[in-house]
Amino acid sequence: MTTEKTPPEDTLTLPRKVVSDMYKVCAELLGDTGYTPPPPGSTEKQLPDHILELIVRRYYLSTACETAEALERAIVRYRDHEAELMMWRDRMHAECRLNNKFTGVLCDCECHHRDDA
Ligand SMILES: [Zn+2]
Ligand SMILES: [Zn+2]
């Protein structure tokens, strides 16, 4: 066989644009874009005030503190993982960014009402 035919390149490889986009997405997933999340209390993503007034504000628990509460409940059930669960619980409470990214409502978790804050 001497007629080894190489197919046109674009059937073998993805378009350069797609590849570069894929790299970008992967880099983002790996946190490799130099992107740093806005600091706690940032209002960058917050809705305008006149819109917020139209929204019913309820008890708000940040995802970090919500997760911490889930870990808290797990401590009761899984005593043999207690130390580890407590470590993660504390870490999650510490991760809380306090105000809701979109509404600016402050997290109502009890961990923010402690005196030793
Ligand atoms: Zn908390
Ligand atoms: Zn919180």
Molecular structure report:
The chain is 44% helix and 0% strand. It has five helices and no strands. The protein has 117 residues and is mostly helical. Bound molecules: zinc ion (2 copies). One zinc ion binds next to helix 4.
Layout of secondary structure:
Blueprint: H1 9-12, H2 16-29, H3 49-52, H4 63-77, H5 82-95
Helix pairs in contact: 4-5
Quick overview:
With about 120 residues, this protein is mainly alpha-helical. It has five helices and no strands. It has a domain at about 60-115.
Distance between the termini: 78 Å
Rg over C-alpha atoms, rounded to the nearest angstrom? 24 Å
Would you tell me the structural class of the helices and strands? mainly alpha
Main sheet specs: none
Mean pLDDT: 80
Number of helices: 5
Q: How many β-strand runs? A: 0
State the helical fraction: 40-55%
> So what's the oligomer here?
single chain
Distinct compounds present: zinc ion
**What's the shape?**
flat
Task: Spell the H/E element sequence.
Answer: HHHHH
Low-confidence stretches: none
How large is the share of residues in beta strands?
A: under 5%
Notable characteristics:
single chain, 117 residues, mainly alpha, binds zinc ion
